[in-house]
Input
Amino acid sequence: MKRTKKLYILLGVLVVICIATFALSKTEEKKENIKNSDKTVLKVDSDSVNKISWKSSLGSLAFEKKDGTWTYNDDANFPVDQDKIAERLKLFKEFGVTFEIEDVDDYGQYGLDNPECTITLETDDETYEISLGDYSTMDSQRYVSIGDGNVYLVKNDPMDSFDVTIDALVKNDEIPNFNQVEKISEIKVSGSTSLDAKYKENDGLSDNEDDIYFVNKDKEEQPLDTNLVKTYLNNVNALNLGTYVTYNATDEELVKYGLDEPQYNLEVKYTPKSEDSSEDSGDSTDSEAGSSEKTFILHVSAKQDDKAYVRIGDSKIIYEIPEDEYKNVTDGSYDSLRHKSVVTADLSDVDSVKVTLEDKDYTIDLSEKKGDVVSTYDGEEIEGTDFTDALKALKASDFTSEEPSEKEEISFTLHYNDDKYPEKEVKIYRYDGTNCLVTIDGKSISLVKRNLVVDLTEAVNAIVLK
Output
């Protein structure tokens, strides 16, 4: 009897185990009911959406389209970047998935009971809610729910676009890429320094054919170094407008940030290439032949501690920039952009150099041979390039208008192949133990390091004293 009773008990336990095992297997089967999918689970026409909002750990943002333009619900004055809203809506134009989990009971295991982000799209006829759950590190994909009872894994994670603050959606002002414009006709600087450079065809205005920007000084056209101008404008173009302090500046804020009377003002007049003609970075004036000249204006405050503030034209947005960018964009003076080299010509354009050293004159002829400039003295070709290298190495350490008062160290006159260039006479005088003073055609120009003058003197002596 006892044995029979024990047998029944064992059978009962076995039945319970079987039932539990069966139930567990079904549960596991349900949990693992995941299948690959290339399904498009949402198709939302971006143009039909008139409201978009989302909530994440960074806060809640909501936007409404009015008369075709997206506005920020919390502040209608906020300059919403229309393209950035369009980019986010485009994610759901054809929202595809890679995995599908059907008939989900426990959304919590996918982080969807308390989503990391909830996105709502509204059209005139329908409302869509997209919930973003946990990120599956194993699959490198995001769990997503669209309210249809399923959970999906998506490779293109919407969180990348929606886990942002309002700052990421501001429509910043644009700075033209001056390397890609048709022409720059004028560069003007006012405030702490001044500059008025104009584009001119270089037909003998300077001995460097690359010179195209000229400043009128003492009724003479003085060239700027084109490479230095390009570098300066590249620095302006690279200005980081990522940090704004206000997007709707009042008169009081202009005063606060030193932009009621800016320390530095830059104005660049340029003509965009035809494909860029829609670009607008300031005022524009129509010119002939259907082109449109535009004006880019930058205002910069005085430096305040380790930062400064800038404004593009009459924009309402004021940006904060660090000290290094402040230095770069305010370095547009004449002395900053003029040639530093004493010899600005390409030496292949120079026929001969008449050198005066210790009251004796020597003529060194220059000619081009297989792409190189070679020197000839007294009919004999000179080996090496010490002389021409020394000429090209003469660079200003500072600019000055101080008249020479010490002894002349060396002088030379450049004679050009082309008659459109007049001769250029360079005289170099002692100045102090470190520098010498340079005059060009009788006018004081700059100081150069004394060691560079010594190099030139030694190069000449090596040729003429053989």
